Amino acid sequence: MNIDIYPVSKKSLSKVINTLLTQYGVPKVYKDMSIYYAPNESDNTEMHLRFRNKNCLAIFIDEKTDKTFRPRVTVDTDNTTIKSLLEMYKKIGFNNASVGIATCFGFLSEGGVFLELMLDTYIGDFIQVGYERHNKVDSIEKVLFGLDLRIIDRSQLKPLVDVNKIKNVEIIDDFGKLTEDAYQFTKSVGLSLETKFTSLKSKISWFDNDYSYLEKAFKNIFNSDLVTKSSIDNKFGKYIKNVSIIIPCFNTGDTFIKTLLSIEKQNLPKDIVDNFDVILVDDGSDTSVQKVLDENKGHLNIKPKVVRLNSNMGLSAARNVGLSVAKNGNVVFLDSDVVLPSNYILEHVLRNRLIPNAIFVSFKENVSADSDKVSFESISNGIPPPNVSNDSRIKKSVNDELPSLYDISGEVVVEILSQTNCFKDFGRGRNIGIFDLPSMVVGHNMTCRKENLLKINGFSNQFTGWGMEDTYFGARMIANGNFVIPILSTGVYHIDHAPRSGSQTKKFHELKRNLKRYNELLDKPLEIVR
What we know:
It is a single chain. The protein is of the alpha+beta class. The chain is 28% helix and 25% strand. β3 and β4 (55-62) form a beta hairpin.
């Protein structure tokens, strides 16, 4: 593969990003670590390891032919731990190296061509274009030349290198300790340093959830903070696409009609809303969802798919059925008793398109079914974001009478969002009161990538009744390297209802049973579907 390098100055960076965004849409952002092993003295060959999030590429460079990035071998980091990989390199004579950490924005990857913007590398900021045949990149070259960007050859790279950033170190010392940059990278992307893969609990305990680098990346692309109460500029609504919305329904009456209407009334161009892939999964309701839809035709223009199950299979099974028929890569899960403010899809999907390794969650405001806030008239006019201050993930009083994973004494008031810096300090197995990072994943509203859902085989059917299925889903997503990121600029209105279990007592017993099962599953390994 040929690689063309186009240096980008800090002065022109904003213009370059805006042009690439217009031409190619929202990129995917990755954290990139390159380990540059010192050249072999006998034949002057080099070995590089490039980690992009959890993916690893082994690269061989022959100085004599200048065939950069050839050959390249993909390393399966789900079956090969990073420590065992680096120890193998040490045994064959590769251990002294420099480590570079950068941010990669992948704007294009199709048809044997890729276009990436690399920021904060040893040679500064640059665009790299990869291709097998030159005729495939004519249109890209035209765009880049229009930005006054020019290709440089490999001989011109050395003068650009910031020598102050380069330091050759032992990647693994005699005590088996990784160099600091590599160690911090593994924490931030969920690459385990265990010599072999053990339990789900151990993988969760290793993951950091410090998504700080993604905040900078988000600011670069959208000129907005990733975690803020302020809404994104609506001009970015044109980049919303490939959205599937999955809504399980079981004996919820007609509340899902308001859910559908709130989707229809998103503050987005009509053609974008019309292309939403909305899926209602009727989980064996006594009155069919299709019948309720037919009775409410006057309220709706949106035309969802309806999948009816012959019997009640449970929430996880219903979500998995919805996932199996979802057409698109950006998947929004909603309960059938929530109502969306008009900015919800913009705030969730734009973040999900940029960041490929995260679960995005928003908080809720509980309202009564007859509240003016969720009346048909209010929803039709587009409702504002809710007041979510009473969501349990923001402030909650808990006591030792509640069944939980963690022991507490007496009554404790926890303010998780503020105590964890918006979940950034909630990794590494930390708990606050009865809560931990997996428990921040609550399924009444969340957004993630379909590809990540399929890797963990969707939702588990190990739980019956109320509680823990969302937490277990969160645990498996975290163990597979996905951040849990709150979105504060939107939320949902949750329409109050009686316990689905029939009573609080029954709900309490279901939770106790599911907690026991969850603890058993934490000691088992995470299975990844390839």
